[in-house]
């Protein structure tokens, strides 16, 4: 089984998080320990590593600090000794490897040969049974001459033998290919990340061995609401799809034995997919069972606001092909499979779609396609999903409104929508020949105000809700000089590295992995975009980039 990598603060020693766009702010003290030094001095810092001679700490500003054993108090020595004992037990001495390029690990399927062996054996047994019945048939008494001639010629003769081999061939090859595709070896998370990259930093991504997580506020860069002719009186509000409420896309999709239809009975609540710009995509049918597009509920971009004032699409966001490019997915279904626009992943014209509104690509992956006509994106969920009692796919984040849902305003048509600074919007609509509007805004403390302007005058509604969340907008800085991100890859033995803004690959002198005793166990001259951990013992390692200034930028790596 492929090794799974975890790069996380909470896994062992509350060390600085390794994912890009860490939810913790640059000045967070979560997991920081108070150190009491000799002479009455004390400081707050994260423990990185230590031994019986010294301890290395990371301060709040990201700088590292090395203290000798004699500088530590008795309590600090006891703490370091306990950590060192645990680290020493799982870290084995490893010889240094100087690599110009980290090799890609390609795992072989352990079940492929056994699968074909079973099918081949079944075909052989089928042929032997045919021979046995043919022999017994010749010795059966009481059968008419015509029956013997018919059976001998058509069943046990050349036609019957040809039919047997044809059926065996289908069973062995065609059926085998279909069956093999019902399981997945896992999706490379960097593939998913490539689809969301064009929309960063409006979206933030991270992953572990099971899920690819996407954080966003659900508000797209394009305009919203204009063109709706059947308005539910809901308006877009930023949502907090972050932290434990982030979008979760499985990295291990499995083809469903019986796909669940996306219709007016299933998945009527919540999303079925997530667009590459961080906006959720719902069933084409609303929770009332009507086609949202045909009912006039959608804007020019195929979206509207739900009962929690949460903006979402009901159709495939085909317009994202332009910023993403025709060969990147425009969305990912919550079953783990990609959604493409009008082109195949290789840039060719879209091929014929199956009942799921997708097909297998030449890259060996199953994917869906968006179209302008029903079912628009997903006809059936090709992958295995879990549907709760409210007809919603789980897991998925929750949208939270600040006011009760209103009733539809019949005859209203939305003609304008624009932001008011960074904390509000104005929506303009026509009704019975008059032009009315809704102006709404919010404060950093979570106070929401809705002003309704009609021919009758102005009315105001005030609500107190949760304070708007601050979305992650960058990478946590370890020091003022440079930053880099580290991503685990459940589909291989590699860690993926990406430099942040403000530093070039040519500025990195070396990429080094050290064990907790400070010994270099892997090193690359210059910058390496991948680090191969194949063969590393379980333990804690320090991944660092050496800069010309002599200061290293570090991330902690946990090898389970």
Describe it.
It is a single chain. Strands 10-9-13-14-16-15 form a six-stranded mixed sheet, with no helix packed on it. Strands 20-21-22-23-24 form a five-stranded antiparallel sheet, with no helix packed on it. The protein is 16% helix and 29% strand. Mean pLDDT is 77; it is low at 1-30, 89-115, 174-184 and 473-482. It has helices at residues 74-90, 112-138, 145-155, 158-180, 189-196, 321-324, and strands spanning 33-36, 42-50, 54-59, 64-68, 204-207, 211-215, 247-250, 255-261, 271-275, 280-282, 303-305, 311-313, 331-333, 338-340, 358-360, 366-369, 380-383, 386-387, 393-394, 413-419, 424-431, 434-442, 447-454, 457-464, 484-488, 494-499, 510-515, 520-525, 530-532, 539-546, 552-559. It is flat. By secondary structure, the chain is an alpha+beta fold. It is built from six helices and 31 strands.
What would the keywords be for this entry?
560 residues, alpha+beta, SH3 type barrels, six-stranded mixed sheet, five-stranded antiparallel sheet, 6 helices, 29% strand, flat, disordered N terminus
Quick description:
This protein has 560 residues and is an alpha+beta fold.
Instruction: Indicate the overall shape.
Output: flat
Structural class: alpha+beta
Low-confidence stretches are 1-30, 89-115, 174-184, 473-482
The number of strands is 31
Across the major sheet, the strand order is 10-9-13-14-16-15
Please give the largest β-sheet. 6 strands, mixed
Residues in β-strands, percent: 25-35%
Write the layout of secondary structure elements.
Layout: E1 33-36, E2 42-50, E3 54-59, E4 64-68, H1 74-90, H2 112-138, H3 145-155, H4 158-180, H5 189-196, E5 204-207, E6 211-215, E7 247-250, E8 255-261, E9 271-275, E10 280-282, E11 303-305, E12 311-313, H6 321-324, E13 331-333, E14 338-340, E15 358-360, E16 366-369, E17 380-383, E18 386-387, E19 393-394, E20 413-419, E21 424-431, E22 434-442, E23 447-454, E24 457-464, E25 484-488, E26 494-499, E27 510-515, E28 520-525, E29 530-532, E30 539-546, E31 552-559
Parallel strand pairs: 14-16
Antiparallel strand pairs: 1-2, 2-3, 3-4, 5-6, 6-7, 8-17, 9-10, 9-13, 11-12, 13-14, 15-16, 18-19, 20-21, 21-22, 22-23, 23-24, 25-26, 26-29, 27-28, 27-30, 30-31
């Amino acid at each position: 089984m492929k090794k799974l990598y975890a790069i996380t603060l909470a896994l062992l020693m509350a060390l600085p998080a390794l994912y890009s766009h860490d939810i913790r702010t640059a000045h967070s003290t979560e997991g920081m320990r108070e150190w009491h030094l000799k002479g009455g001095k004390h400081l707050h810092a994260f423990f990185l590593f230590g031994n019986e001679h010294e301890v290395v700490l990371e301060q709040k500003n990201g700088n590292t600090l090395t203290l000798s054993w004699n500088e530590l108090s008795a309590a600090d020595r006891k703490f370091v000794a306990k950590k060192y004992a645990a680290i020493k037990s799982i870290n084995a001495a490893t010889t240094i490897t100087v690599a110009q390029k980290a090799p890609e690990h390609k795992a072989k399927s352990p079940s492929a040969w056994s699968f074909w062996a079973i099918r081949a054996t079944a075909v052989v047994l089928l042929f032997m049974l045919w021979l046995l019945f043919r022999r017994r048939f010749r010795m059966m008494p009481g059968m008419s001459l015509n029956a013997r001639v018919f059976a001998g010629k058509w069943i046990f003769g050349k036609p019957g033998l040809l039919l047997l081999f044809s059926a065996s061939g289908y069973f062995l090859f065609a059926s085998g290919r279909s069956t093999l595709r019902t399981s997945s070896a896992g999706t490379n998370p960097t593939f998913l990340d490539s689809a969301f990259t064009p929309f960063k930093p409006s979206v933030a991504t991270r992953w572990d061995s099971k899920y690819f997580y996407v954080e966003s506020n659900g508000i797209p860069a394009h305009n919203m609401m204009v063109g709706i002719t059947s308005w539910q009186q809901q308006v877009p509000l930023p949502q907090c799809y972050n932290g434990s409420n982030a979008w979760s896309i499985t990295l291990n999709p499995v083809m469903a034995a019986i796909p669940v239809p996306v219709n007016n009975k299933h998945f009527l609540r919540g999303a079925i997919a997530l667009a590459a710009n961080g906006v959720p995509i719902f069933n084409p049918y609303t929770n009332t069972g009507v086609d949202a597009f045909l009912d006039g509920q959608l804007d020019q971009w195929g979206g509207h606001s739900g009962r929690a004032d949460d903006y979402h699409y009901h159709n495939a966001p085909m317009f994202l092909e332009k910023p993403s490019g025709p060969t990147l997915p425009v969305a990912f279904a919550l079953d783990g499979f990609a959604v493409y626009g009008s082109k195949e992943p290789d840039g060719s014209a879209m091929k014929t779609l199956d009942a799921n509104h997708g097909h297998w690509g030449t890259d060996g992956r199953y994917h869906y396609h968006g179209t302008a006509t029903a079912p628009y994106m997903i006809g059936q969920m090709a992958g295995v999903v879990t549907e709760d009692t409210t007809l919603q796919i789980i897991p998925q984040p929750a949208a939270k409104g600040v006011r009760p849902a209103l009733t539809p305003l019949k005859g209203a048509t939305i003609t304008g929508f624009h932001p008011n600074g960074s904390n509000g919007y104005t929506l303009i609509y026509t009704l019975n020949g008059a032009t009315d509007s809704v102006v709404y805004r919010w404060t950093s403390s979570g106070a929401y105000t809705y002003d309704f302007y009609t021919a009758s005058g102005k009315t105001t509604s005030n609500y107190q809700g949760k304070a708007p969340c601050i979305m992650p907008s960058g990478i946590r800085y370890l020091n003022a000089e440079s930053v880099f991100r580290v991503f685990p890859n459940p589909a291989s033995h590699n860690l993926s590295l990406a430099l942040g803004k403000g530093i070039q690959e040519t500025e990195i002198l070396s990429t080094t992995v050290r064990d907790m005793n400070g010994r270099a166990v892997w090193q690359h001259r210059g910058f390496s975009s991948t680090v191969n951990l194949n063969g590393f013992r379980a333990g804690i390692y320090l991944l660092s980039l050496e800069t010309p200034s002599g200061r290293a930028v570090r991330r902690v790596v946990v090898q389970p």
